[in-house]
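Handout, section B. The chain below has 296 residues.
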Amino acid sequence: MDSNVFRYFVETAQSKNYTHAARALYITPQGLQASLRRLETTMGVPLFDSRTGAVELTDYGRAFYRHARSIVQEYDVMEQEIEGLKRSKTGHIRFSGSTGLFNIIPVEIVDEFNAKSKTGAHVELTRTLVDFDCENSLFDKACDFALINDPIDHTMFSSVPLHHDVMFLWASEDSPLASRQSVSCSDFEGITLVCVNPQEFRTSCVVEDTIHNAVDKCTIIHADEMIAVIEKAIAKGVCGLVPRTHAEFFTHEGYRGIPVTDLPWGFSVAYRLDRVLSEQDREFIEFLKSRAVFYC
């Protein structure tokens, strides 16, 4: 029996809702229910009763829950102890990041840290991903630390802030807003904006909610990454929303970046809440903190 099924069962029993449990477990509701059905088939008895709408335990389920909860707790303790020993002996740290953030904290710092480490730590850089992929990798323990756009999901992860700033409006010099030293969301009434896809980047969800709360009419179109925001804005002759680095370094004749005072942006290094930090982990976090930049 897959040990994960005990965790699936306990989370579902506690939340009494397949969708909520699946979200907490970072799996699909369909995958969760399929695993629980296989568990019931293995046990030969019904463990859940959802006929009333809420997911309730049967008598068999309550008996299974008492033992499954203990198994999950003991498994977590055992796993943490073994992982702690493994990390202290190897010093190996897997590090990932959301697409674009290595424009601000360059990948070369990994080699710099490895060369300077006094604890024997060795950081391996895994491929860059979007925010939600990074979260899944952390949850599945496919990586140990990840750079993720704020806001961080603190029900699952701890984090250390590394960057605070505001978003920038990427605007043509022909735009009425181009002469301004700064703008706010209330200035976006009636314009078209290109933003990063909110299905991939957590910041975009907050940005779009803030804009819609400030103005009645603002058309938002999406791009898959920040450089694509600039490219699409230029191609369509509209404005885009990008971080400072893109506004300053991806220059284009006839366009300029203008800070948006009420659209904060930043990112943090995140790791699992249940991770017991090793000496090597703490050294790496302190190294990243020394590269932090806070504009506001």
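Note. The chain has three domains: 4-83, 88-160+274-294, 163-267. Compare this with the example in section A.
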